[in-house]
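Exercise 7.
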Amino acid sequence: METIQNYMTTEHKSCDSTYAHFEESILDDDLNGTKEYGKKFSDEMGIHLKREEEVLFPAFEEVSGGQMGPTQVMRMEHTQIREMLKKIEELANSGITKESKKKLIGLLETLMILMQQHNMKEEQILYPMADRALQANCENIITSMKQIQHV
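Solution. The predicted structure, written as tokens, is:
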């Protein structure tokens, strides 16, 4: 049986891989790659965050007794991630100059640190808690998350 932790950790790795391609295309001055991977990364992150916020977090909160605690922290960090993604997307779509490239790489490095810290908390704390708390309904929750395909 698939676990929430395995499913969501696999999504984290996929987002990280797309992030790496996005960053590489910027460093290589590959405008087409930057647009392609930038959109793909933004879409993957958006879907991942939406799956957590619309399916996983509410299910976990229902059995744990509310929105306080780990899901509240994760939602605040999701807001920060979305704000960073918006700034990155705007900068990436405005055309890459030497100056904008430097800013873009700086924003991406900040986002990566934020994502690494966020993912570590989810993978080491939230997902194991969710697997235990939602054990009887794990399969249905994963199925519901998989059904979210668009931001």
